[in-house]
Each structure stands twice: as C-alpha cells, then as structure tokens.
Amino acid sequence: MKVENIMSSPVYTISPEDPLSHARNLMLKHKISTLVVVND
C-alpha cells in the first residue's frame, strides 16, 4: 500500500524546532488535526 492511499492532500509539515504556537496556528488555520514533523 502506498502512503498516497491513506494520506490526504495537502500535507502540512513543521520542523522539530518550530514553536508550539506555530503548529497550533497551522492546525487552526487549515482545520486539521495532524502535522508531519520533518528534519530538513
């Protein structure tokens, strides 16, 4: 099974160094309950 079969689009990402307030604002703005944390 591919990730595209279960994930919705667009996928919103944050960095581990981002403040919690940034994550909260993204989630409220886009009405989502999950963010992907990535190291770039």
TrEMBL record:
Keywords: Amino-acid biosynthesis, CBS domain, Methionine biosynthesis
Coiled coil ranges: none
Gene Ontology terms: biological process: methionine biosynthetic process
Organism domain of life: Archaea
Pfam families registered for this protein in UniProt: CBS
Gene3D superfamilies found in the cross-reference section: CBS-domain
Keyword Repeat among UniProt keywords: no
Membrane found in the keyword field: no
Domain CBS: 7-40
SUPFAM superfamilies reported for this sequence: CBS-domain pair
Name of the protein in its database record: CBS domain-containing protein
Organism encoding this protein: Methanosalsum natronophilum
Highest classification ranks of the organism: Archaea, Methanobacteriati, Methanobacteriota, Stenosarchaea group, Methanomicrobia
